[in-house]
Amino acid sequence: MASLQLQLSFGYQSSSCRHLPISTFSYPSIRCANDRQLLFNRIAPVYDNLNDLLSLGQHRIWKRMAVSWTGAKLGDCVLDLCCGSGDLAFLLSEKVGSNGKVSGLDFSKEQLLMASSRQHLLSKACYKNIEWIEGDATELPFPDCYFDAITMGYGLRNVVDKRKAVQEMFRVLKPGSKASVLDFNKSTQPFVASFQEWMIDNAVVPVATAYGLAKEYEYLKGSIREFLTGNELEELALEAGFSTAKHYEISGGLMGNLVATR
Ligand SMILES: C/C(=C\Cc1cc(O)c2ccccc2c1O)CCC[C@H](C)CCC[C@H](C)CCCC(C)C
Ligand SMILES: C[S@@+](CC[C@H](N)C(=O)[O-])C[C@H]1O[C@@H](n2cnc3c(N)ncnc32)[C@H](O)[C@@H]1O
């Protein structure tokens, strides 16, 4: 297999758990950036397959919606933040074409290795326009006003300092460009919230347990409980300086997508 060259940004130093206020503990043993980095390294080998199985393939539709909301077009320079195994980066690559450029950034080496492996196995010519960067969403190794679009799929909820991550997205976006942030929706509707948690408890975690990953997927419930509602996400984006911010609920409110324009 072709050697997997990963462009390293300024080296990632995970924040220490010691300095986190108690309120950030969404799951006792997965409370800080370093714990989460290790979690995503551990689930990397089965991550894509479990997403397909557990969402009945629906996550691919949600990701296509997120990419469409960016308005990315041929020739653009775009960023997939918290890219993981690269699902959104590959979709962006097809949008911007061979003359465009896609940067996929993540702090999980194992997720980036999966992304790079997929890039070499998939045959589309445009995928040569993707670079994979190991880095932190709260300290992006890019200049101001650099990108024409940003996606962040199921990433913001997992970032400890969400405010800093949103501020960084604002900083590296060109004026008039969009960030599209897809994630689970922290619903204000009791039935939706209950159904979401029931599915995690009774479908997601039992399946993950078969792979020895119960703890990693149990983390989902707490991370959603500690996430921001759609309105709070809109406020966070506006506070960071975005001129407009709109949160769209999808799939009956199970998922949500924030679209913020700089
Ligand atoms: C792509 C999806 C989740 C990605 C994802 C995000 C995380 O923060 C994780 C943290 C820890 C472990 C894994 C993940 C993770 O995979 C969404 C789809 C996959 C979900 C795992 C399944 C969610 C099921 C829904 C609650 C209900 C779906 C109902 C219907 C089938 C549409
Ligand atoms: C649930 S995965 C999402 C992957 C991909 N975007 C997708 O939609 O499938 C969350 C990703 O965010 C990454 N992540 C979490 N916190 C991060 C941070 N502070 N900096 C960079 N990546 C981070 C994790 O390593 C993981 O790959």
Automatic annotation (TrEMBL):
Q: Which UniProt keywords apply?
A: Chloroplast, Methyltransferase, Plastid, S-adenosyl-L-methionine, Transferase
Q: Which CDD domains match?
A: AdoMet_MTases
What is this enzyme's EC? 2.1.1.329
The biological processes this protein is annotated with in GO are: methylation; phylloquinone biosynthetic process
Q: State the GO CC annotations.
A: chloroplast
Please state where this protein is localized: Plastid, Chloroplast
The reaction(s) catalysed by this protein are: demethylphylloquinol + S-adenosyl-L-methionine = phylloquinol + S-adenosyl-L-homocysteine + H(+)
| Keyword match Translocase | no
Q: Which superkingdom does the taxonomy of this entry point to?
A: Eukaryota
Q: Which GO terms describe its molecular function?
A: 2-phytyl-1,4-naphthoquinone methyltransferase activity; methyltransferase activity
EC category: transferase
Q: Name one Pfam family in it.
A: Ubie_methyltran
Q: Which InterPro entries match?
A: MenG, SAM-dependent_MTases_sf, UbiE/COQ5_MeTrFase, UbiE/COQ5_MeTrFase_CS
Role noted for this protein: Involved in the biosynthesis of phylloquinone (vitamin K1). Methyltransferase required for the conversion of 2-phytyl-1,4-beta-naphthoquinol to phylloquinol.
* Family the entry assigns: Belongs to the class I-like SAM-binding methyltransferase superfamily. MenG/UbiE family.
Instruction: Tell me what this protein is called.
Output: 2-phytyl-1,4-beta-naphthoquinone methyltransferase, chloroplastic
Tell me the organism. Answer: Populus trichocarpa
Starting at the broadest rank, the lineage of the source organism is:
Eukaryota, Viridiplantae, Streptophyta, Embryophyta, Tracheophyta
Give the gene that encodes this protein: MENG
